[in-house]
């Protein structure tokens, strides 16, 4: 009977459903949702879906050490999961509907100043020049790609996965724009599948800083294959997620920059710099690939509020 479906079985079926059809989830979304479900299964894995009660959800969300933003994120995942279970007739109602949505609190937005970005770039170049012979002799840890990647990320707002999977066929330097889109392709004999977040493709403008990086990277073309990644690793393959993190941390340390400036701060840099100079929330929201303008406003509304000179011009 549908009501007897195990929580574990339902969780596996839900995650599997995210890898099929037009609404395919990104790898990051799958990892995030799988992580929350694994925690839920650790507590209630022996139960059926219909046996999970609102009190269990409340207890799960009240686990010690959980930050407000994580508590809100966990709630969203569980609410989506149990609504799907109701659609599949694994349960008659979702246990999250009787639980108040936790307040996530405002997320802290960290971004690079122009001076910090310049410092990072200089440290990356200095590090490569100092270690070049040792690095190139073993073919690993060649960090020369991190400096242009960081400048490109700051001037386009791309996510880390989008940077890793950006291909030359996704770039139009004549029209000064790039396409962030899901695709299936082949590179170096290996099948590559990339899914954008929320399966939402978008177009991002290419400003002079990004165009300069593309001009530099063009010299590193290794083939005429349009599937070639713009940012290649030392072995000529796609950069790995941990590979980018490791190189970024190494250079950040060399530049004596604060730990709060992580790779994702480059995405915040793109939005913050534009909004502080008067760009609209609507445009920035589209370029960032947010679900709605409200997401952008929640993250960067304080930037707009603090930078508006409209009142001065109108009432001055």
Tally of alpha and pi helices: 13
Helical fraction equals: 40-55%
The computed structural class is: mainly alpha
Distance between the termini: 71 Å
Task: Walk me through this protein's architecture.
It is a single chain. The protein is mainly alpha-helical. It has 2 domains: 2-98, DNA polymerase, domain 1; 114-267, hpI Integrase, Chain A (Orthogonal Bundle). Helix content is 53%, strand content 6%. It has helices spanning 7-17, 27-44, 54-61, 68-87, 114-138, 146-156, 160-165, 208-218, 241-254, 264-276, 281-288, 293-307, 310-315; strands at residues 171-172, 177-180, 183-187, 190-194, 202-205. It has a 3-stranded antiparallel beta sheet. Strand 1 (171-172) and strand 2 (177-180) form a beta hairpin. Helix 1 runs antiparallel to helix 2 (27-44), helix 6 runs antiparallel to helix 8 (208-218) and helix 10 (264-276) packs across helix 12 (293-307). The radius of gyration is 22 Å and the shape is globular. 29% of the residues are buried.
Give me a quick take on this structure.
This protein folds into two domains: 2-98, Orthogonal Bundle (DNA polymerase, domain 1), CATH 1.10.150; 114-267, hpI Integrase, Chain A (Orthogonal Bundle). Helices cover 53% and strands 6% of the residues. The chain is built from 13 helices and five strands.
């Amino acid at each position: 009977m549908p009501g007897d479906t195990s929580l574990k079985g339902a969780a596996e079926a839900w995650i599997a459903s995210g890898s099929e059809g037009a609404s395919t989830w990104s790898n990051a979304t799958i990892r995030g949702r799988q992580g929350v479900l694994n925690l839920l299964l650790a507590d209630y894995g022996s139960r059926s879906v219909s046996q999970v009660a609102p009190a269990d959800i409340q207890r799960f969300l009240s686990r010690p050490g959980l930050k407000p933003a994580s508590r809100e994120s966990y709630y969203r995942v569980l609410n989506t999961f149990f609504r799907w279970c109701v659609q599949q007739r694994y349960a008659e109602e979702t246990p999250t509907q009787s639980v108040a949505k936790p307040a996530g609190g405002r997320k802290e937005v960290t971004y690079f100043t122009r001076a910090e970005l310049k410092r990072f770039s200089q440290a990356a170049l200095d590090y490569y020049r100092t270690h070049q012979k040792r690095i190139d002799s073993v073919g690993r840890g060649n960090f020369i790609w991190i400096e242009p990647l960081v400048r490109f990320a700051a001037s386009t707002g791309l996510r880390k996965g989008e940077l890793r999977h950006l291909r030359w066929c996704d770039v139009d330097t004549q029209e000064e724009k790039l396409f962030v889109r899901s695709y299936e392709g082949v590179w170096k004999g290996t099948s590559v599948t990339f899914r954008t977040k929320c399966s939402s493709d978008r177009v991002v403008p290419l400003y002079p800083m990004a165009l300069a990086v593309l001009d530099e990277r063009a010299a590193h073309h290794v083939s005429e294959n349009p599937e070639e990644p713009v940012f290649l690793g030392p072995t000529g393959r796609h950069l790995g997620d941990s590979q980018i993190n490791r190189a970024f941390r190494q250079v950040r340390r060399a530049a004596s920059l604060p730990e709060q400036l992580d790779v994702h701060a480059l995405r915040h840099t793109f939005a913050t710099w534009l909004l502080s100079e008067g760009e609209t929330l609507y445009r920035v929201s589209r370029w960032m690939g947010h679900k709605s303008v409200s997401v952008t406003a929640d993250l960067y509304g304080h930037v707009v509020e603090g930078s508006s000179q409209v009142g001065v011009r109108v009432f001055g």
